Amino acid sequence: MAEEEKLPIPPTFLEKVLFYTTASFVLLATFSLFAFLFLVPFVIEPAFTTIFMQFDPVGALCVTAQVKHLVGASNCTWASCREGCTKDLYECTQIRVNYKLGEYPNVTSTEFENLIRAERSLRRDYDYENNYEAPIDTIPEMEDQELPDAIPTGLQGNDSEWYFTGARLFPNVKGCGYPPILNCTIFYGKYRPLGTNYTCYYSRVDPGLVITDLDMWQNTLNLVYAMAIPIPSFIISVIYLTFAYFKIYNTEEESEQAPLQSDAEGMATGDDGKPTTPGSDTFREDLACFGHQLKMQLANEKPKEGFESNSPPISNSASLSG
Questions:
Q1: For residue 174, what are the contacts with CB-CB under 8 A and spacing of at least 6?
Q2: Same domain, 158 and 48
Q3: Tens of pLDDT along 203-249?
Q4: Which of 22, 35, 81, 322 ranks highest by number of CB atoms within 10 Å?
């Protein structure tokens, strides 16, 4: 009968801990890398852009001056709001505003509307046609109308009411987002009507860029979270995996190869400790002894019946060893 197969040695507690620890760090490194790559276009890059554009934290007073609804990829070079930051634009709505600085800081839209009504009541001869602005009382009648294309844009002089005219309006620095954080239907419903008054924030780097929402504290917090969690997690995982590969697992392999190396060293030296050569008597004796041991080991692994029928006579084995 064949000898029973040897059962594998169950792993020790330390080996289990090492295995699960290594697997955990591999998963942590993988998820950290993919999380960072996902956060770059959606959180990190917009947060850095918001900081670099240097938006004035003091709100300016904006009035919708022009609205365009365009169709075609060549016409839609930009859009005031779009749901999805990667899709191509074939239909877009562009809103341009006029804004002025620092006259009524930190007021609500209702208070601002009342202030504008009072200001306009004192100037009944104001030329709205030339400035492309509609009185508040006529906003419902002009919601679906567009002003002429020749709207003046750029910084205005000291004699002008506005600091900048024809600025592009966006909900954020990228002008895009995803529901429920950004809903373009609500955005257009709130800011599209001509003559609508609201608080906005302009960029000191590009005064022609205006956004409706600005929270620098939340923007900085999102940037810190997006970088402080995945990057250190990935670095720590890589450091542990490198240490485990070169130190822990490499030591185990060396311990397993130690008996083989000792046997090889024993064959390379004789009983007197001197190195053996292929032509020496000591080398031939060691080789014959090794062959005999190998043959006996192979014979013990075979079934007993097969060994008795197939094994050569003892005399032959003795002659071969001689």
A1: 46, 49, 85
A2: no
A3: 999 999 999 999 999 999 999 999 999 999 999 999 999 988 887 77
A4: 81
